[in-house]
Design goal:
The protein folds into four domains: about 95-155 and about 230-335, Calcium-transporting ATPase, cytoplasmic transduction domain A; about 375-435 and about 835-1090, Calcium-transporting ATPase, transmembrane domain, CATH 1.20.1110.10; about 445-470 and about 685-825, HAD superfamily/HAD-like (Rossmann fold); about 475-540 and about 550-685, Calcium-transporting ATPase, cytoplasmic domain N (3-Layer(aba) Sandwich), CATH 3.40.1110.10. The protein contains 40 helices and 29 strands. Belongs to the cation transport ATPase (P-type) (TC 3.A.3) family. Type IID subfamily.
Length: about 1100
């Protein structure tokens, strides 16, 4: 064992306005490396090299001061790094005199905000003095009553709950719905009850679906409240332990904690024995966090994950016991901070009263008109306002043409033109399309909680993802080992952390098995140790059970990984014990105070073998005396493995004769003079799908950021392994590409905005860091997905453009705050959601184009139709009101739904995200709808003119707008011709709208480049195919069925006019195909200028990643 040297170093430290003299003992055995930065999060200080010393852990009030002055050793590296920010290998202590000074300087006015900010930076005695609390006897009844009045009950405040009225108002708070309401009122006002009833049904459908979809989205605060601990044990009065409701706690109370307890408030620990808590809901760390009352944290910016001397409300005690001093309750706890952020922003009270009124009024108007929400929701709301203004303008044009002589005919005509410009079926089609998309997403392991998110996720530019369980499997795997003879053992091609039949164990490029292990002494000692010094149980798939189809395991994750490794070479614990006839002689369980475990087995001859595993820095001093070179070699190898993001364990053994059977029951004796057996590196392996999913994101121009509570080395290693970092990622080599949360949080907003690239990896991440990352990305104009599973992630999930919670391991709070929930916790499911979102975005563009073409064609026909006068000088309707309604609500609706069900195009994930500013109304879409719509309306108009004025004599009869009479034969035939052309061209246009650029004759060249591919195009979407067929057939029915033709639709049967209809089909298809050919030619020319000649890839996606 190496000698230990101590160094007493004075340092000066500031806390608020108080200056402390701080002394730090340093102990560094020669050659020992720093601890593995492996994200273990479970490394205790080592009071002694022997057994756990209760007096060194279960501390009295007196012993808290200067506790580290006796025989200190350095903290393990990962804990040391998290507490002291890698400054040096030191343990902070404050002598008794300094602690008393600290207690005097802390405010004693019960300023909770000040106390909670420094509770982890001073001894528990100093905090107790500030809170006027007695650690031994607790608070008296009078003090408790006074503080309950001062601080209130220990409970999260409610945001007011969910009201049915507010959700109902939200459903109608969009411009398009308001326009439809106005159209419905006008229809009823003009006694057109059929049109009014249909529009009414559309509005009700949208409200009902949206209401039930959004109701549960407002339950976040209620879920937070359900986490409160109901009961707790508190010391009060004269030291009496009482069981009380957790809501009755006040700052200064002394609370006892044991395994299984839910922590009732934020507390500074006073005494601990092997204590650990599950803080995943706050910190995101999947492993329990060990707690130590004696540790003093010197960093005032330390996050909850970096405060080993504190426990937090609603976390759970998983191991040991302890005593805590309450310093924050209710909304002042860490959980309360999250609840406060989830309640939304407080009203802006800055500025004069009239400015505040103006801002609130403007915000209310925007909410009422739906101008707040996802890009699609906002764009559609602006579009609704535009249509409303356009409808009024067109009505004014009609009334002006009549010189404002507003008789019934003119008023009805003006309303018809106004209604023609409104796509009445748009909301219904959008609702149905999104609902179908959400069903498809559910099959892909994504539950859509808020309908708008499905479209929104297709436009994301950045994904901020958790690591553990999302990008990784959330299970430990033994990946690499170092043997005493200098050889390395690796595990390759494993597919499941629990399945020992998957993967290969390699030593120097050679695969080993059970016979290889039996023949080699070094290998046998290694595998004996990991198999026997192990309490995990691996369960094979049951041959009789249909439900259990995969391997499962019970036990600590680390031990499971080691047992699976042993089983991969047919060297399991059960096999080893049965084959060698071993029986357990003694067991020294893992203890966080000594950070090692030892088991002693006796063979048939009575000889004993001690098998030990533990932290490297703990076992090296316990090894047999050997050269400093050997020790440095072991330490160097451990450091090298730790730098690869592995959690490194040291393995050792000791052989004894039967005479020592009684001695091995003493832990100190059993764990000395050990023989080095090897090092083993364990890590949480990436999911098999993660690398491919991230590559797919990058090809789609989506930048992926890893925000994890894990340590920097572990996070960086995983990021490189799955492709978040690497040469293929632009600017990932820059220093700002990898940061710790502390480094990120220290930067101002201006400094963050000046960074050339935002961090792709942020380690030791806290909830506030995630929110700041979101804010920074938003300032850069990015649209972001944020993933999370704990309560701590809820503010980020709610603040993200699309929040994605974990379904398997996520808390109820995170699920309620999120827009989507992954049922398999898999990052690749997010990529599937993006693909589905892009498919939905493309399809929305397709049916928007189709619906708007119909509206534009009708407006062209009706406006110019003002010139067609009957015998009374009244404008004759080129289309009857019911023809307009039927085309908009029946014919177009089913065609639009068919377009909404289109499959994703082949290039959906190899193009950059669409423009958030343009949204669905891109320049191409706007140009296309006018080119196609005007031409369609022109064909209808020309056909009407040919029938009425070319072949006919131009006599449009009298009073033919209301009913048929003997003078209405010609206008009814002309009107029927225009209607048939409109309906048939809309049906054909649905096929053309399947792709905005590709020809109908060759729409899927990657699947079927043949000349007959048009048949595949027509039949691929069966719903659309039959919708088109119905659209082509319905004109015949409406034209030839008696009564329906003349009374309902107000047109007559056609004869020779069908020639005009079929000619219009040919001309329209030729027009559309010609325009698409022009667009393809222009795109090819533009593409040549946007391709990197050296790499042959589009520069648009690369520039998107560069800007992230």
């Amino acid at each position: 064992m190496h000698a230990t040297r101590y160094r007493l170093t004075p340092a000066w430290y500031y806390l608020g306005q108080t200056r402390f003299s701080k002394y730090r003992f340093t102990a560094r055995p020669e050659g020992l490396p720093g601890g593995a930065d492996d994200g273990d999060g479970d490394p205790p200080p080592i009071p002694s090299a022997g057994s756990a010393n209760k007096s060194s852990l279960f501390l009295s009030e007196e012993s808290l001061v200067g506790v580290r002055s006796r025989s200190p050793l350095p903290l393990p590296g990962d804990l040391r790094n998290s507490i002291f920010n890698n400054t040096d290998e030191t343990v902070n202590i404050i002598p008794r005199s300094e602690a008393v000074d600290a207690a005097k300087d802390l405010t004693s006015t019960h300023d909770v905000d000040n106390i909670k900010s420094c509770a982890f930076m001073v001894p528990a005695t100093a905090l107790a003095h500030a809170l006027e609390a007695n650690i031994s006897s607790g608070l008296n009844t009078t003090t408790v009553s006074a503080r309950q009045v001062q601080y209130g009950i220990n409970k999260l405040e409610s945001s007011g709950g969910v009201t049915v009225w507010s959700i109902l108002v939200r459903q109608v708070s969009n411009s398009l719905t308001l326009v439809l309401v106005i159209a419905m009122i006008l229809s009823y006002a003009t006694l057109d009850f059929i049109e009014g009833g249909v529009i009414n049904a559309v509005i009700l459908l949208n409200i009902i679906v949206g209401f039930f979809q959004d109701y549960r989205a407002e339950q976040t605060i209620q879920s937070l409240q359900s986490l409160a601990a109901p009961m707790c044990r508190v010391v009060r009065g004269i030291g009496t332990v009482q069981t009380i409701m957790a809501t009755e706690l006040v700052p200064g109370d002394i609370v006892q904690l044991s395994v299984g307890d839910v922590v009732p408030a934020d507390m500074r620990l006073v005494e601990t024995i092997n204590l650990a808590t599950d803080e995943a809901l706050l910190t995101g760390e999947s492993k329990p966090s060990s707690k130590f009352a004696e540790v003093i944290v010197k960093d005032p910016l330390a996050k909850p994950a970096d405060r080993p001397n504190s426990v937090f409300s609603s976390t759970t005690v998983t191991r040991g016991r302890g005593i805590g001093l309450v310093y924050a309750t209710g909304m002042e706890t860490e959980l309360g901070d999250i609840a406060r952020r989830l309640q939304g922003k407080k009203p802006d009270t800055s500025g004069p009263w009239y400015l505040r009124v103006y801002r609130r009024t403007l915000a209310s108007i925007k909410n009422a008109l739906g101008l707040v929400g996802t890009p699609l929701q906002v764009k559609l709301s602006y579009f609704g306002l535009f249509l409303f203004a356009l409808a009024i303008t067109l009505a004014i044009i009609v009334f002006s043409a009549a010189l404002w002589d507003l008789d019934d005919e003119t008023l009805i005509y003006g309303i018809c033109v106004a209604v023609a410009v409104i796509p009445e079926s748009l909301i219904a089609v959008l609702t149905i399309t999104v609902a179908v998309g959400s069903t498809a997403m559910a099959k892909g392991n994504v539950i859509v909680r808020k309908m708008g998110a499905l479209e929104a996720i297709g436009g994301v530019t950045n994904i901020c993802s958790d690591k553990t369980g999302t990008l990784t499997q959330g299970k430990m795997l033994a990946r690499k080992a170092y043997l005493p003879d200098g050889r390395f053992l690796t595990v390759e091609r494993e597919t499941s952390p629990f399945d020992p039949t998957s993967g290969m164990v390699m030593v120097e490029q050679s695969r080993i098995n059970g016979s290889s292990v039996a023949e080699g002494l070094t290998l046998k000692s290694f595998f004996d140790t990991i198999a026997v010094c192990n309490l995990a149980n691996i369960v094979a798939p049951s041959a009789d059970s249909e439900g259990q189809k995969s391997w499962s395991a019970t036990g600590e994750p680390t031990e499971i990984a080691l047992q699976v490794l042993a089983m991969r070479v047919e060297h399991s614990k059960s096999q080893l014990l049965a084959h060698n006839g071993l029986s357990l002689a003694a067991e020294h369980a893992f203890d966080s105070s000594v950070k090692r475990m030892t088991v002693v087995y006796e063979n048939a001859q009575g000889n004993l073998t001690c098998f030990t595993k533990g932290a490297v820095e703990v076992l090296i001093p316990l090894l047999k005396s050997s050269s400093a070179q050997n020790t440095r070699t072991i330490a160097a190898q451990a450091d090298a493995m730790a730098s690869q993001g592995l959690r490194v364990l040291c393995l050792a053994r000791r052989d004894l004769t039967a005479s020592f059977k009684s001695d091995v029951k003493d832990r100190i004796f059993a764990e000395q003079d050990l023989t080095f057996v090897g090092l083993v590196g364990i890590y949480d392996p990436p999911r098999l799908e993660s690398a491919g999913a991230i590559k797919e994101c990058q090809a789609a121009g989506v930048s992926v950021h890893m925000l994890t509570g894990d340590h920097l080395k572990t996070a960086t290693t995983i990021a490189k392994e799955i492709g978040i970092l690497g040469r293929h990622v632009p600017k990932s080599h820059l220093a700002s590409a990898v940061m710790t949360a502390t480094e990120f949080d220290k930067l101002t907003d201006a400094e963050l905005d000046r960074l050339e690239v935002l961090p792709l990896v942020v380690a030791r991440c806290s909830p506030t860091t995630k929110v700041r990352m979101l804010d920074t990305l938003h300032r850069r104009g990015k649209y972001c997905v944020m993933t999370g599973d704990g309560v701590n992630d809820s503010p980020a999930l709610k603040g993200a453009d699309v929040g994605v919670a974990m379904g398997l391991n996520g808390s109820d709070v995170s699920k309620e705050a999120a827009d989507m929930v992954l049922t398999d916790d898999n990052f690749s499911s997010i990529v599937s959601a993006i693909r589905e979102g892009r498919r939905l975005f493309d399809n929305i563009q397709k049916f928007l184009l189709h619906l708007l073409i119909s509206n534009i064609a009708q407006v062209v026909l009706l406006l110019i139709g003002l010139a067609f006068k009957d015998r009374n000088g009244t404008s004759a309707f080129p289309l009857s009101p019911l023809e307009i309604l039927f085309a908009n609500l029946i014919t177009s609706s089913f065609l639009a739904i068919g377009l909404g069900l289109e499959e994703a195009s082949s290039d959906v994930m190899i193009r950059p995200p669409h423009s958030l500013r343009a949204g669905v109304f891109t320049k191409e879409l706007i140009i296309d709808k006018f080119i196609y719509g005007i031409f369609m309306g022109t064909l209808c108009l020309i056909s009407f003119v040919i029938v009425a004025y070319g072949v006919g004599d131009g006599d449009l009869g009298a009073d033919c707008n209301h009913s048929y009479n003997s003078t209405c034969d010609l206008p009814f035939r002309a009107r029927g011709t225009a209607y048939c052309i409109l309906t048939v061209l809309l049906s054909v246009m649905a096929w053309e709208a399947k792709h905005l650029n590709r020809s109908l004759l060759n729409m899927y060249p990657e699947e079927d480049p043949g000349t007959l591919s048009i048949f595949r195009t027509l039949l691929k979407n069966r719903f659309l195919f039959w919708a088109v067929i119905v659209g082509l057939v319905t004109p015949f029915l409406s034209i030839y069925i008696p009564v329906i033709n003349t009374v309902v639709f107000r047109h007559k049967a056609l004869t020779w006019e069908w020639g005009l209809v079929f000619s219009s089909i040919f001309l329209f298809v030729a027009w559309v195909e010609s325009w698409k050919a022009i667009k393809r030619t222009m795109r090819k020319r533009k593409g040549r200028n946007n391709v990197d000649p050296d790499k042959g890839i589009a520069l648009t996606a690369v520039s998107t990643l560069d800007s992230a």
